[in-house]
Each structure stands twice: as C-alpha cells, then as structure tokens.
Amino acid sequence: MSDTLVIIPTYNEIENIEAILAAVFSQDKLFHVLVVDDNSPDGTAEKVSVLQNEYAERLHLLERNKKNGLGAAYIAGFKWALQHPYKYIFEMDADFSHNPRDLIRLYNSCARDGSDIAVGSRYVKGITVVNWPLSRILLSYGASRYVRLITGMKVKDSTAGFICYKREVLESIDLDKVKFVGYAFQIEMKFKAYKKGFKIVEIPVIFRDRIKGKSKMSGSIISEAIFGVISLKLKSLFVKSY
C-alpha cells in the first residue's frame, strides 16, 4: 500500500493518458493514481479501465457524469482520497506540463521537510515556463502578483496546479464549500489553507505547455480568477471559520 495518491483529472486526454501513467508508475517511489474522468467522449476512461489490468491496485478510476470544472473534479478526487488511508495527496495534469520526476521532490517537501503543502512553482525562481506565448506568461504571472496583493499570501504561483497536500490540510477544509472551478479553485484552496495557518512551500519546477491534446483554458476561467480573488478576501474578513 502506498501512502501517496496522485489525482489526475481528465477530459479528452486519450493522447496522453497511457504515457503519463507509465511515467508516474516508473518513479522510484510507489505512487498510486486516481484518474477522475469527466465523461470524455474520446474514450479516456475506457483506456484507463483497460490499463487497470496492467497496474492492478495502483490505478484507480472515478468516472463522473459530465464535465463541470476542474475544481469539481478535484473535489471529487479529494473526497475519494480521504475515504482511503493516503497521507499525501497530489494534484497533477495529464498532459506532461507537470514533470512526473518532480513528484518525489514535492513529496519530500511534505514527508521529510515539514511542509503542509508543496507547490510546484513556475515563479519562485524567476519564470520557468516553456512554450507559452508571451501573452499567456504575462497573464499568468500578473495574476499571481495580483493575488498576492489582494490576499496577502506570499505564494508566488497561486494558480499552480501541481501540488502535494498533507492529508490533514484537506481534512481541515470543508470541501463542500469550495466555490470555484477553474484558476480560482487553485487560489481558493491555497488561501483557505493559508488562513488556517498551514505551511505552504514552493518548489521550483519547469512547466512545459502541452504537446498533445487541447488546452482547457477559457475566458470565463480567467474572469473567475480575477473577480473571485476579491470575493475570497472579502469573505475571509467577515467569516471567522473561513
């Protein structure tokens, strides 16, 4: 039995899923994986189901009825994880923008070095992003600076989605009250943990834009992040148990 679970949300990731699973399972540490699939029409869930025969007891599949946001997929994955005895629970993309070799670095930050949350950060040591257009880099980097200004968090990459949580962090957050689904979901989770006094550490990683498949970024996700941060901060001022 592994003490770690890597949650990988998927929607139309048939081009990436087999390779990313092989890469995670090839690491020196034993990781379990939960794929949370949002009813991908391209057969992603069916492929994972077949691969479960190869990765018996290490690969798990949670199928949802429809696509209704990254945040909702992760919340479903968190709830599943907390029903099992995992101590360290990861967020990770399916498209190789997050390097599976960095999993052990995030794990060590929490398991060995005392972090409650380890964030794979694109901005803690300069800007370590590959193959993004300048406009997207400026948008993402600017959003992170904006979040720091509004919330007071010291996290330089608040929208990062490559994360290791100690179990206790997720247990302390009322997952049914997490509001946002896109970029703002990542900010909200970090902000809730920050307000509860958990130690958040950023680990520098190189982020590479996907080669296969299509990006899920949209204008509504960006606007949710911009306006959602203000509502998060205002709510935290008036709700003591936030």
TrEMBL record:
Belongs to the glycosyltransferase 2 family. The keyword Glycosyltransferase applies. It comes from the Bacteria. Transmembrane segments: none annotated. Pfam families: Glycos_transf_2 (PF00535). This is Polyprenol monophosphomannose synthase. The keyword Glycosyltransferase applies. SUPFAM superfamilies: Nucleotide-diphospho-sugar transferases (SSF53448). It comes from Winogradskyella aquimaris. Residues 6-172 form the Glycosyltransferase 2-like domain. Keywords: Glycosyltransferase, Transferase.
